Amino acid sequence: xxxxxxxxxxxxxxxxxxxxxxAAPRADTARLNELLGxxxxxxxxxxxxxxxVIGTVAARIRECDETIVPAGFREQLLERQRSYALSAxxxxxxxxxxxxxxxxxxxxxxxxxGPALSLQAYGDATARQYGDVDLLVRQKDIYRATEIMxxxxxxxxxxxAAVAAxxxxxxxxxxxxxxxxILELHTxxxxxxxxxALAVERLFDQHATLDLNGHVLPTLSSEDAVVAMCTHGAKHxxxxxxxxxxxxxxxxxxxxxxxEGVARIAESLGAQRIVYTGLLLARDLLHAPVPAAVEEQxxxxxxxxxxxxxxxxxxxAAGEASPGLLRRAVFRAQMRGGFLHGIGxxxxxxxxxxxxxxxxxxxxxxxxxxxxxxxxxxxxxxxGRDAN
Length: 388
Description:
Elements: H1 7-12, H2 14-23, H3 29-36, H4 41-50, H5 54-61, H6 71-104, E1 110-112, H7 114-122, E2 133-136, H8 142-151, E3 155-156, H9 160-164, E4 172-175, E5 182-186, H10 200-205, E6 208-212, E7 215-219, H11 222-235, H12 241-253, H13 259-268, H14 272-286, H15 292-300, H16 302-314, H17 325-336, H18 339-350, H19 368-383
Parallel strand pairs: 2-5
Antiparallel strand pairs: 1-2, 3-4, 4-5, 6-7
Helix pairs in contact: 2-3, 2-4, 2-5, 5-6, 7-12, 11-12, 11-13, 11-14, 12-14, 14-15, 14-16, 17-18
């Protein structure tokens, strides 16, 4: 991606302001037209791609003055949108096939993010960008689910030997050979970025169902989805606008949100500040319809506001100005809320090996100390250099 130095100039650029306007639930068309008149079209397309908001930009551009936007840019934007839509349709077809196989085997599954989030937040399963489909199953079902995925023609990134050995990856990834179809299975054990353990049975008991062209799509309730979306954004340090846009779109579309329910869920997971930060980002950057009482509660947490402002300093660069290892660690601890809680949360994340840390010898129950050491070395190499 083309960079503008210093980062503050990118934040003030017409291209970044255009993305914010396009991602808002209610765009100011007059201001958007004015901003488009100043745009570098190649950079705008690249920035939209990096932030995962091609779909929302395309939808807004269709509403704008045709004399301002070059035909070539419109064609490129439409082509990329079509490409993502076709990819989504392919993923949806495989998802439905696997859901049916799981159902036949008595394995209950919920669709996370991807087409479910797109339906809930935008009203269209292909409206947002996603490159895989995530399904939630119970940990007790993961061995059988892996067998089913393999029989369905997928290659398992985490082999059955590792599953049998009790290894817990960041996700159980499955790739269909000679295609770009990726499905990921999650369990209550893999979703480790929630500060407290996930009550998976409650998620299944209170799940929602969506209608996807006559197919029943089981997914999280809108209340659980908001907490999960904010936790996912926090996991990635909110480095891309798409995650904030998703929160904003969800709040705009799900007008019957039970905010007391959201508060209870966030509290049970120790994710109050995580949710507050996500809501403030959606409200301040995209004018999301956060209820006044909820916004007041979020702003009462001074650290949520401080973290939101800090995120805004690196957000426009779409990951190119990410915090380094130390700042990332401090960010994780502060996101949890409370000194002791924050240190405990950070410690658990740092010392929880994933498949990248035990790739060799996965079939054995190797030393946890050795795996943890590998993880520390890997994290230092990955995040050791601060982009700022």
